[in-house]
Automatic annotation (TrEMBL), chain A:
Stretches with biased composition (Low complexity): 18-61, 71-80
Domain of life: Eukaryota
Native organism: Apiospora aurea
Pfam families cross-referenced by the UniProt entry: Methyltransf_11 (PF08241)
Protein name per Swiss-Prot or TrEMBL: Methyltransferase type 11 domain-containing protein
Automatic annotation (TrEMBL), chain B:
Family to which the UniProt record says this protein belongs: Belongs to the TRM112 family.
Organism: Apiospora aurea
Domain of life: Eukaryota
InterPro entries registered for this protein in UniProt: Trm112, Trm112-like
Protein name, per record: Uncharacterized protein
Length: 372, 127
């Protein structure tokens, strides 16, 4: 059984239009504010219930019949993703990924369609919903010894790159659009060092880094072989353990990996042990302009000035990223949900040693080092 | 991309990683910018032992900087020599490669750098 509630992208940030947390509501409006500003003509909301495509000014897009998919609107999104999108007349449920690939080449091409193209399309919206570091990860980064050098593989918009100013981090991501956000993270131009790279072909030398983090990335790999290869690639980056003649030993560099958990019965998504592990999870870009403007005011009051300022900065970026689609658009991303113990098995299968592990808000995480 | 980061980058082609020719990558047609950043001497002193000094020397020369000494300065030397600390800060932290290419000395593949971002995605035949 799949739940009928649309899923949030990763734990921690809701993206659907359904009633989520206050944070989700504010995140959502922060990206829509950009598109509202870019469309000079104010649109009228269709029926105010948010379940239908909005009626926008005729000069911008043809008005779709309510409740029906409209191909004209879908083509207004980027070319790369148009085949994956449909207008959401109602919030879509997650679906089992029946096309789960078998060969490695198929898997790569499957991920190109169901992961990479999607992130390119949703990058401004995605980035605007990602600005708060998760505490376990922030703690890991803050505990590193001064001068540590490491990587953030799948850095997204770079929200972890500046967490600890006493270390040097180099971020990489498969999405060039997200990397562009990461480079100027915090609104400071060129504040972060970033590169576009594939997690299975990383440009990092063997055994040099003190640490590597990889958050919400490996669950996008569509075969177990590739997921293990991705963990292996992280372990390869970090220092091997060593001991010297004076008896000092060093357990080497550490990796921190976060993946989405199958067991999340307390989340809105409701998946749990026994649910399907390979899923297409919708990312809905809502366009409910009137409603959002109202929420924005509410949010500005409720949140600290600092947080508000950050949201505004992200919004500015989103606007610069040009074409927000004019109607609700749903993108399907592939996910493998990890069952309890599975991540540890994958780490150990490729020569990793689990140092710490845990469950945090619908995610499994491990800190691991190299066995040798 | 800071010169410091170039010290932690190599060719993304798997077969190249174990070869000595792939590291460091060689800047080509590099356009640099110089930022004005406050010296963080603690960060620099702590990063120094992690730097591959011969690779940094190669990169510095290829980017048109004066030759670095054959041996890296010790912590004590750096603490006592403010000019050397500033020079290293300038090279590692303040100098960024904005445009150009990074070339693998083993396979010859050229990775484009645009707006300070290097792109390491490989064409299908090199994956």
């Amino acid at each position: 059984m799949q739940p009928t509630i649309p899923a949030a992208a990763d734990a921690g940030a809701a993206v659907s239009g359904a009633a989520g947390t206050a944070a989700a509501a504010s995140q959502q409006q922060s990206s829509s504010g950009g598109s509202a500003a870019s469309h000079a003509a104010a649109p009228a909301s269709a029926s105010g219930n948010g379940m239908q495509p909005p009626i926008t000014a005729a000069a911008i897009v043809p008005v779709p019949p309510s409740g029906q998919n409209d191909s004209t609107t879908a083509t207004a999104t980027s070319k790369a993703s148009s085949s994956l999108t449909a207008n959401a007349a109602a919030a879509p449920p997650s679906t089992a990924a029946s096309l789960a690939p078998s060969s490695s080449a198929e898997a790569a091409s499957y991920e190109a369609t169901h992961v990479h193209a999607v992130y390119e399309s949703i990058a401004p919206h995605f980035s605007a919903t990602r600005y708060k570091p998760w505490p376990v990860i922030a703690d890991f980064l803050s505990s590193l010894s001064p001068g540590s050098v490491g990587f953030d593989v799948g850095c997204g918009n770079g929200k972890y790159l500046g967490v600890n100013p006493g270390v040097h981090m180099l971020g990489s991501d498969r999405s060039a659009s997200l990397v562009r956000f990461a480079r100027d993270h915090g609104g400071v131009e060129r504040s972060q060092d970033v590169a576009v790279a594939d997690g299975l072909s990383l440009p990092f030398p063997e055994g040099r880094a003190d640490f590597a983090i990889c958050v919400a990335v490996i669950h996008h790999m569509s075969t177990r072989e590739r997921r293990r290869e991705a963990v292996q690639a992280l372990l390869d980056c970090v220092r091997r353990p060593s001991s010297n003649s004076s008896g000092n030993s060093d357990d080497g560099g550490k990796i921190l990996v976060y993946v989405w958990a199958l067991e999340q019965s307390n989340s809105r998504r409701g998946w749990d042990e026994g649910s399907e592990q390979d899923l297409l999870v919708p990312w809905v870009m809502k366009q409910k302009k009137e409603k959002k403007e109202k929420k924005e005011k509410k949010k500005t009051k409720g949140k600290s000035a600092e947080e508000g300022a950050e949201a505004v900065a992200e919004e500015g970026n989103a606007e610069g990223g040009s074409s927000d689609p004019p109607a609700d658009t749903t993108y399907q991303r592939y996910y493998h949900l990890f069952r309890k113990g599975e991540l540890e098995e994958d780490v150990e299968a490729v020569g990793g040693k689990v140092v710490r592990n845990g469950y945090d808000k619908d995610n499994w995480w491990v800190v691991a080092s190299r066995c040798s | 991309m800071k010169v410091l980061s170039l010290n932690f980058l190599t060719c993304a082609v798997k077969a190249c990683k174990s070869t000595s020719g792939a590291y460091p990558l060689h800047p080509k047609d590099a356009e640099l910018v110089e930022d004005d950043l406050e010296v963080n001497s603690d960060l620099l002193l702590n990063i120094m032992p992690r730097i591959d000094w011969p690779a940094l020397s190669t990169t510095a020369t290829e980017l048109g900087f004066p030759s670095l000494p054959a041996q890296p300065p010790t912590k004590e030397e750096l603490e006592a020599d403010e000019k050397m600390l500033r020079d290293l800060h300038h090279l590692l932290m303040e100098t960024q490669m904005m445009e150009g290419k990074l070339v693998c000395g083993n396979c010859g593949h050229e990775y484009a750098v645009r707006e300070g971002i290097a792109n390491f995605l490989l064409p299908a035949h090199l994956v």
